[in-house]
Design brief:
The complex is a heterodimer. Chain A is an alpha/beta fold. Chain A is built from ten helices and 14 strands. In chain A, strand 12 and strand 13 form a beta hairpin. Chain A is elongated, with a radius of gyration of 25 Å. Chain A starts with a strand and ends with a helix. The mean pLDDT of chain A is about 85. The model of chain B has no long low-confidence stretch (mean pLDDT about 90). Chain B is globular, with a radius of gyration of 19 Å. Helix content of chain B is about 85%, strand content about 0%. By secondary structure, chain B is mainly alpha-helical. The chains are: A alpha/beta, B mainly alpha. Chains A and B meet through helix 2 of A and helix 1 and helix 5 of B.
């Protein structure tokens, strides 16, 4: 099932939370929804689930508008702060979720066993949800979203508040589940998106400012290459000057003057590796380090969202 | 299974899991039993084989008892955010409201069922008017359903349980005493309208054994109106 978002807008009072955004998520895609806090991620996700009504525009899921109310059974939703009935035991809660989603009573025990195993809840299944640690609650949250085997998963910051081990586990889980499902997950943890998502959407001030894979975003953001080099045996200022005068080099910066480490940015669409090497050979300097530096997703994110 | 029933079952069992049910049952049975059998104008002093005292006490006890069970229904779900999860499941707003209504009504039904021994005991003492007693119970159920409906609506208005409780109690008191007092104080059409709105008057006429369609329509109107308002309120999300 695919998700189509067309000219969606939503305001709270005078503040425009989501401003005329449109995008599509194809069946089977895992899309990472990125943006600073307050950019409109949660609002957009709430409109996709049908919890909030849009002021304008529409969301269609598998061709059906969310306004029809027919789309709910296809969606599994994990809201932002993972609200759960804390007084209920895990199994009772999941049974409740399964029946309220309209699952056939006979199919529930099998499905429950599968969910408990996949989400790693076996040791905790008889405990009350309120007694569980944050990581386990998050698993219960995922299990309730998945219990009726929905084709679409909407996960609002699924890894906030988890420790690094738990983050990796939940990420793996999402990746596994995502093989067969259409997933939208929001986060502001950038490595998470790279690790789990096929595609990245960056939203800022209610508008989409970037859309593509991590690789295409990198390419769009910066055409030039960044190198970290360390050159020994030369006089620092002379090295600096000579590097700067290379035709393929746009900018040179000291990283560590004592150790002779520089950051070299090449001209657009050019690489400076060869020229730096040849320069060192000619000057009889020792080139002890040359590391190409990838533009980090963090920088792209900052470029796009800090105006 | 019907989602309305699934929700009702969950709510009902959460009353029993959290002790709320037991505390309220003890208070309800304690108060009604105390006044019916032991104190004041009780059955032995009145020397009449009927449950009038019980019906008098029960309607006042329910006035307090019901806001205490309805207050958390929506207010608590709004405070913790679980309402969002519930409403994005494959259920309609109406099914959620009806499920919660049903769970409260069942809770009251259980409390009333525990008073059936009163009926049986009194019936042993002489010739009880079965018709009047049954219509008295019907009156209590209609009155309870009205208070539940009011309580559910006030619970949708806030995310604070105490506020929901007080609003429900105040509205209940208004319907129970205020309109009656106005009706007695005023003559003419204003008094008549207040009398028509007075819940205690309609309850009295049913509990005396008079089943009038006017009274039934009155209670059903309050119930339906309260539930529709609750449904409307939860469909308005910011």
């Amino acid at each position: 099932m695919d998700i189509k978002i067309q000219n969606l807008s939503k305001s709270y009072g005078l503040q425009k939370a989501v401003n005329d955004i449109s995008f599509e998520v194809r069946t089977g895609e895992i899309v990472g929804f990125l943006g600073p806090n307050g950019a409109g991620k949660t609002t957009t996700m709430k409109m996709i689930t049908g919890y909030l009504d849009a002021d304008a525009g529409d969301v269609t899921i598998g061709g059906k508008s969310v306004k029809s109310g027919d789309t709910k059974q296809h969606i599994g939703y994990l809201p932002e702060h993972n609200p759960l009935y804390l007084e209920m035991p895990v199994l009772d809660y999941l049974t409740f979720c399964a029946s309220v989603q309209g699952m056939n009573k006979a199919g529930i025990p099998d499905r429950l066993r599968k969910m408990v195993r996949e989400c790693g809840l076996d040791a905790e299944k008889h405990k009350k949800i309120g007694e569980l640690s944050k990581g386990y609650r998050q698993r219960v949250g995922l299990a309730q979203a998945l219990i009726h085997d929905p084709e679409i998963l909407i996960l609002d910051e699924p890894t906030t508040g988890l420790d690094p081990n738990q983050i990796v586990e939940i990420r793996e889980l999402i990746k596994n589940i995502g093989k067969e499902k259409t997933v939208i997950l929001s986060t502001h943890i950038l490595p998470e998106v790279e690790a789990t998502c096929d595609r990245i959407l960056i939203i800022n001030n209610g508008s989409i400012v970037a859309d593509g894979t991590a690789a295409t975003l990198r390419k769009q953001a910066k055409g030039q290459q960044v190198l970290h080099v360390r050159i020994e045996d030369g006089e620092q200022n002379e090295v600096f000057e000579k590097l700067r005068n290379l035709p393929s080099v746009a900018m040179v910066d000291f990283l560590d003057r004592e150790a002779g480490r520089f950051e070299v940015q090449s001209q657009q669409e050019a690489t400076a590796n060869r020229e730096i090497f040849e320069l060192c050979v000619k000057q009889k300097w020792a080139l002890t380090e040359m590391v190409p530096f990838e533009t980090r997703l963090e920088d792209i994110f900052r470029d796009l969202t800090l105006n | 299974m019907n989602p309305t029933w699934v929700i009702a079952k969950r709510e009902l069992s959460s009353y029993f899991d959290s002790l709320v049910a037991y505390i309220l049952l003890v208070i309800f049975l304690g108060l009604t039993g105390f006044f019916t059998w032991l104190v004041g104008a009780d059955i032995f002093i009145r020397k009449q084989v009927d449950l009038r005292v019980f019906f008098e006490v029960a309607q006042l006890t329910l006035l307090l008892f019901i806001p205490a069970i309805t207050m958390r229904q929506f207010a608590e779900e709004k405070r913790t955010g679980t309402i969002e999860l519930l409403l994005t499941k494959n259920v309609t707003n109406r099914q959620v409201v009806l499920g919660k209504f049903l769970s409260c009504l069942l809770m009251v039904g259980i409390a009333l069922a525990f008073t059936l021994p009163y009926y049986i005991s009194v019936a042993q003492l002489g010739n009880i008017d079965h018709g009047a007693t049954i219509s008295g119970y019907l009156g209590l159920i209609l009155l309870s359903a009205s208070y539940i409906s009011i309580g559910l609506f006030t619970s949708t208005l806030t995310d604070n349980q105490v506020v929901a409780f007080l609003l429900a109690l105040f509205t209940g008191l208004m319907f129970h005493f205020l309109f009656d007092a106005i009706a007695m104080g005023l003559s003419g059409w204003a008094g008549e309208i207040a009398g028509m709105l007075s819940l205690s008057r309609h309850f009295d006429s049913i509990s005396r054994g008079l089943l009038d369609s006017k009274d039934l329509i009155y209670f059903l109107t309050i119930i339906v109106l309260g539930l529709l308002l609750a449904e409307w309120k939860i469909s308005k999300r910011r």
